[in-house]
Design goal:
MFS; mainly alpha; about 475 residues; transmembrane helix; EmrB/QacA subfamily drug resistance transporter
Length: about 475
Amino acid sequence: MSQSSNIAAPAASFSSAASRGAGTLGLWVMLSGTFLVVLDFFIVNVALPSMQRELRASAGTLQMVVAGYGLATAAGLITGGRLGDLFGRRRMFMLGLLLFTLASAACGLAPNAELLVAARVLQGLAGALLQPQVLAMIGLAYTGESRARAFAAYGLTLGLGATLGQLVGGLLIHADPGGLGWRSCFLINVPIGLLALVLAPRAIPPLANGGNSRLDLAGMLLVAAGSVAVVLPLVEGREQGWPLWSWLCLAASLPLLAAFAFQQRRLAANGGAPLVAPVLLANRRFVMGLFTTLAFYVGNASLYFVLALYLQQGLALDPLSSGLVFTSLAVGFFATSMAGARLARRFGGQPPIALGALVLAVGHALQFVNVAGWAGHAHVVAWMVPLLLVQGAGLGMVMAPLVSTVLAGLPPQHAGVASGVLSMVQQASNALGVALIGILFYGRLGGAPDAAGYASAFGVALVYLMASALLVAVLQRRGSRPQPKA
């Protein structure tokens, strides 16, 4: 099957009958879980200023509301996938969805910033249990062209959850249902989650487990500790003046991750069931795909984070106006995502991911010129809207086909684990990107920010984003080269 079929008309997957019992409703229910997990990473961006004012949260705490969720999700994704192998995909999907719904309610009712961050971490862990089951269930429930279209629908769901999150959040805060304000951004998950829970047993068939007999607890603890040791000091260290503990955490991350790699190889050599099969890391195309995913997602979440801050705090837009500006990004994303098959045919059957990354880099560069040229002027928003359309088009050309491209050609027995690894890299990169861009953005902003200061900080962030997009183009070109024969 050509690679272009992997990104063909995602909407068509909703009308294609599954080969193993999951129909249109089943796919909708599966993707609803993914949509909620992704949406909740991004919907908070537009609510951050409101949260900060009401809860009197520091900048570091504000970053933890975003990065803590992504980090918790990333740390638990591979373990969540293994639990699906052990106890059943549908069962773990439903348990994760239930816990996610309860944690969303806790976020919406949090009385202070500390409890909000704790609830966000719990929400992220629930997402880690829920999300890897979706890719695995799609792989088990669909075959052939239906599977390719379902994977494309999954990629489209990731993008729409990210780009629409700002608009949905802005609309909810503006509508202010029941006087809830930013809290409605979390509480909206409750009815959606409950509806999906009711439908899941009817819409999703019981699917075979992966057959692994035990959970690799040592590997789970090592990868979680290594991830936290990288991201936590990057989020909290700047605001606290880079205390000794932050440097010790960063120093400890390398031996922790090295120990994880060694432990996984030794467990596999002894006939055990490691979290990550070493044979996957011997696949050059898969590894390059992971690096491409890392480069893309350290810029993806970062864009939404700093753009929301710049629009609301730098340009003094209200949440609804800020969300409407984000709509241009969503339109560009949706247009190129839906045109993916036609674009692939024009480029010899391969999705033009590298070209999309270049389009994204150009969009960031033009946005930099716009912000620098119209700093503090009302015209900056008028020019920002069409440029966000360009940036969204680049995002759509990369994000929608990236999942199926990374997973293409892997042995079927490793598809479930590979999906968990890919999801972990996505979420860890999101959290890492927010932490890194927070250092740059707040470092440039200084202690007495004004409109010009926000424009300067956003400009620095755009340079970072441009570099991330260019790196995606380079890695994708290298990764698409034929793999050397053994």
